[in-house]
Design goal:
Length: about 475
């Protein structure tokens, strides 16, 4: 039992996906664990009862007071740094870690070889890229798993019975904020756009937390050539001697880049004499779906895999084997020559911009909770592609006004209802506007909780409405 935790008084901040595993692991390592939680609902009480049966102390309904004697806090990633609990910890000199930091420090604790981490962050595309990366690593015969912000506990991965060769790790800006000692083998920042600014306080702070993923990288810092902010994060990072900056681009790659040439994904970073040579990795058609932003995800995943020494054949085989999660630019059906595509996961303007760029003529279904977003730039970029727009949800007026300013010729249907049945009407209105060869695209640019439980339910409602069209 490691002396670092034996007898130590540790406070775990927050129950849920990260808090419960953290409390169990720390208790098993001999720490005196107290869990504090803001909520006191039925789910929290059930989780508390389970932990208390193990000997863990749980305080529900008070997540702001620092328990007496606390020597370390391990926090759920979503808890804001401005919470009184953390202010009190700072005043008392108590360190605060996230569950990712705890997992990083526990690697190899039982004497097994610590699996290196290939880490991915970005405003959009993280989950898809990490899943692609895991598929590529598996195709190379490596023992791996996609873990982290993807919904699979990193703590379970590093303390469980399975021994891995390498982990594909999705990290959010929240998790990176609370992970000061993380040092990945290689890492990628896919893109940067304003998001979660209420949590971070500013775009600069958000970007800085994303940039933590590059700190201490050993082999490669993978960045997006089309997003200069990601390259700036590489330049600012303190990495190990010999670590390289590796770009990915949808254009022809230069030396130390991966890119696209005549329908092929090619590598000019991990080849001999990269000034003159390139290695074919896969065909664009091997990427599912082959939308531009998804090709970028594939190139980022390939870059990380190649940094770990994976062969070109494994990149190709892994991409071919990969199936994306539901509601990510998923083709639902063709009805009367019109394609219907579900990208309900496009919950912000940056993701929606990428989705709209994948099609030539679009009837756009959009709207929901804007989360403080503005839509002028999005509409300006997409105006020439829009056949029409159907707007739903609480903040649809913001999109309607942007369309009126920047695309006044585009017909707009404004559905003044926020019940879940509005999706069926929206699809019917979109069908009326569409012409053969068009794409009806659900890419809301907004969160879903005004009308639906989550983006999954919203996408399911769209798919069901499309199926009813073709019935």
């Amino acid at each position: 039992m490691p002396s670092e935790f034996t007898g130590k008084h540790v406070t775990v901040a927050g129950l849920g996906v990260s808090g419960v595993p953290a409390a169990k692991v720390l208790h098993g390592l001999g720490a005196h664990v107290t869990v504090v939680n803001d909520g006191d609902d039925e789910r929290a009480r059930t989780q508390a009862a389970e932990l208390e049966s193990l000997g863990v102390t749980v305080r529900l309904g008070d997540g702001d007071t620092l328990p007496e004697g606390t020597e370390l806090i391990v926090t759920a990633p979503g808890w804001k740094p401005t919470k009184p609990l953390f202010t009190a910890a700072g005043q008392a000199g108590v360190p605060v870690w996230g569950d990712v930091e705890l997992a990083w420090r526990l690697r190899g604790l039982d004497g097994r070889k610590a699996a290196p981490w290939l880490a991915v962050t970005g405003t959009n595309g993280k989950t898809t890229t990490v899943q692609m990366l895991a598929s590529i690593l598996k195709a190379a015969g490596l023992r791996t798993a996609a873990v982290g912000n993807i919904g699979v506990s990193l703590l379970d991965a590093v303390t469980g019975d399975t021994e891995y060769d390498v982990l594909a790790v999705e990290l959010s800006s929240y998790q990176l904020h609370w992970a000061p000692s993380l040092r990945a083998h290689s890492a990628a920042v896919l893109n940067l756009a304003p998001d979660h600014l209420d949590w971070h306080g500013s775009m600069e702070a958000y970007a800085a937390d994303k940039g933590r993923i590059y700190e201490g990288n050993r082999v490669a810092c993978v960045y997006n050539v089309a997003d200069k902010a990601t390259e700036e994060l590489v330049r600012a990072a303190d990495v190990e001697e010999g670590c390289r900056a590796v770009g990915f681009t949808l254009g022809t790659p230069g030396p130390s880049q991966l890119g696209v040439v005549e329908g092929l994904l090619v590598d000019r970073a991990f080849v001999e004499d990269r000034q003159k040579n390139a290695q074919e990795l896969a065909e664009v058609s091997d990427v599912n779906p082959p939308a531009p932003h998804n090709i970028a995800n594939a190139l980022a995943a390939a870059g990380l895999a190649r940094a770990f020494g994976v062969s070109a054949a494994a990149v190709r085989d892994g991409l071919r084997a990969f199936t994306p999660d539901a509601h990510r630019i998923a083709h639902v059906a063709d009805v009367d020559g019109v394609a219907y595509v579900d990208d309900s996961k496009a919950t912000n303007t940056h993701a929606t911009e990428a989705s709209l760029a994948a099609y030539e003529s679009i009837v756009w279904i959009a709207g929901g909770l804007a989360k403080g977003a503005t839509f002028d730039e999005l509409v300006v970029g997409a105006a020439k592609r829009l056949r029409g727009a159907v707007l739903i949800g609480a903040d649809r007026a913001l999109i309607r006004e942007a369309l009126a300013r920047h695309a006044p010729e585009v017909p707009v249907v404004d559905l003044d209802r926020t019940d879940t049945g509005a999706m069926l009407q929206a699809v019917q209105e979109a069908r009326r506007l569409a012409r053969p060869g068009d794409t009806v695209l659900l890419a809301p640019a907004c969160a879903s909780m005004d009308m639906f439980t989550n983006y999954n339910q919203r996408g399911d409602a769209f798919a069901q409405a499309v199926r009813e069209l073709g019935a």
